Amino acid sequence: MLPYGRQSIDSADVEAVVAALGSDWLTTGPRVAQFEADLEKVTGAPTVTVTNGTTALHAAYAAAGVRGGDEVVTTPMTFVATASGAAMLGAKVIFADVEEDTANLDPAAVEAAVTGRTKVIAAVDYAGVPADYDALRKISDSAGAFLLGDAAHSIGSLYKGRPVGTLADLTTFSFFPTKNFTTAEGGAVASTRPELVDRLRDFRTVGSIRDPKRLRRTDEGGWYYEVQEFGLNYRLPDVLCALGSAQLSRLAGFKARRAELTARYDELLADVPGLRLPAQREDVDPMRHLYPVRVLDGRRREVFERLRAAGIGVQVNYIPVYWHPVFEDLGYQRGMCPNAEAFYAEEISLPLFADLTDSDQDRVVEALRGILGS
Description:
Blueprint: H1 11-21, H2 30-43, E1 47-50, H3 53-63, E2 71-74, H4 81-87, E3 92-95, H5 107-113, E4 118-124, H6 133-143, E5 146-150, E6 158-159, E7 162-163, E8 170-174, E9 187-190, H7 194-203, E10 208-209, E11 226-227, H8 238-248, H9 251-268, E12 275-276, E13 284-285, E14 291-295, H10 300-309, H11 325-328, H12 338-346, E15 347-350, H13 358-372
Parallel strand pairs: 2-3, 2-4, 4-5, 5-8
Antiparallel strand pairs: 1-9, 6-7, 6-13, 8-9, 10-11, 12-14, 14-15
Helix pairs in contact: 1-8, 2-8, 3-4, 3-7
């Protein structure tokens, strides 16, 4: 089965992991600090590693101080963790609709959804295309809310020449194997605000503080630490950080290859009937994480099943979050976000990853042409 996404591992990655395994540190050692420094060069802001993209969101919401009584405005066109990370801290999640073409959060819908209880506005860079952060920043500043960017798809992307990581108060990343690069499991949160970076570091380390300048009691010994607020153990180990640093050295190459593959899809599928290709935006330079096409005329399920039967592992990204029973049971109803639901009804993600060969891509195109032409 040709997958829709897959990691790219070379000998340098293996050597980095083996070196870490032979060192004195398997977790919370020097490779964590090195990987965070390497990440900052890409994200443009101080970056704190965590165990995965879901815990990155949880940590970001915790750093923002989200709690019961707060509201978080976000998109339904995402993985459930973008919403559940806030809900688990007691917030009410408000779903705003997406732009019809990009499937990114629609600033006009956000503005209509904001109230005096809005604590965070959380955008998602769908398929690697950054959301409209300038418009969202104006809304968040006016509301006195934090702006969060879920950049699980978009590390390496630029918005108006600025890297993701510098566009929001908090930006979360995922390093799952299907993402733009991998640490196997892993994630991170970037922030341009020092006080939020401190809160992130505390939260991912069970809330423990060792900095003498921040302790309430300073008359204890060198063993002493304090927990001033509750946190969780979300530490990413040295072994996985070693893999991450090795992978980051190839990020530019990954981006270039994804761009080549995207351009080939654009050209090869341009005249296929019943197919709508991904939207392009002039103000962004995306790291294309997904290639999401829309299958028209009610044929999405047929196309999905026939491609899978042909050994082509397409995917659907995503089920509108409020359709999940956990949100239905809280009173959320279908029909809330018509653009998101229309997008979901037609979307299929075609295979896209750095090691995808031209011949494998040609196979995908030929199969898709054959189905839609029949």
